[in-house]
Amino acid sequence: MADIGVLLGIVLSAGIAAGTPILYGALGEIITERGGILNLGVEGMMLMGALSGIVASLATGNVWIGALAAMAAGGLLSLVHAFISITLRGDQVVSGLALTIFGAGLTAFLGFPYVNVPAPKFLALPIPLLGRIPVIGPIFFQHDVTVYLAFFLVPIVWFLINRTRPGLHVRAVGENPEAADALGVNVVLIRYSCTVLGGALCGLGGAALSLAYTPGWIENMTAGWGWIAVGLVIFAAWDPWRAAFGAYLFGAISRVVFDIQMIPTGHLPQLVKTLLTPEFLRMMPYAAVILILIFASREAVRKRVGAPAALGVAYTREEAEG
Questions:
Q1: What is the CATH number of the domain that holds 132?
Q2: Sign for the pseudo-dihedral over CA of 167, 171, 177, 180
Q3: CA proximity to 217, closest of 82, 52, 60
Q4: Do 24 and 18 meet the contact criterion of CB atoms below 8 Å apart?
Q5: What's the total number of domains in the chain?
Q6: Is the sign of the CA dihedral 270, 271, 276, 280 positive or negative?
Q7: Torsions phi, psi of 115, nearest 5?
Q8: Structure pTM?
């Protein structure tokens, strides 16, 4: 029984560490979508953040500067999406996909000299007293600062969206920009702010990956985690607390997948062997995200799960007045 408890603690602790980069991406996308802008470029912004964090930290020897550079890279990339989606009223799906393709291609080209180059990283920072609590301490309080920052951001983002006047404006713009505009809310400013802030958090998620969870740069190192973040937003019904649960759950599953590979399968039926192959197990979370996106694409389902009513819909005051 003690061995099971230790193993469970290891899995949950690893799940929190692995889920943190995804959680940053999901929080950024929640903020963006609450303002009515759909950004499918999370993967590209996380990649840009991961590479920018490595480059800046290597140049300065300071991981905090690397994290700030990652946020700046994600914010700048999302600013492009905001200009296309808000000012030019372009197709938000196409623009977001273009960001992902651009981010993947640019980081592959610029990041080649940094592949497997040792870089500064955020070290584990056990919290005094709390880190020594049996079971709970190792799971929650023996991580690096990016994990602790995510712990704080979840309630902060929830509070700002649901309990403040700016959050009310954001939700109003996401639900009914015409009504918000009529009440004097600057729809364009709100949408630009949400998109850029969301992109900055996605970039920070990339930094959490390259400067903390798996220090260093590897081409396409996000490996689809940006898409997992997008799927989590729908799974969480645009709620930061549920997004945290989903991100950490995915991280724990990733650890379980790794451990299952150590199980001998010689005596098992062929079907079970197939289901326990690393390739099949690693595929399952991504397949689940695809199913979630397909399911949530229906208009009736989007209303039922609480999607912002104006999500993905371009708006200009001229159209409203006309």
A1: 1.10.3470
A2: negative
A3: 52
A4: no
A5: 1
A6: positive
A7: -60, 125
A8: 0.90
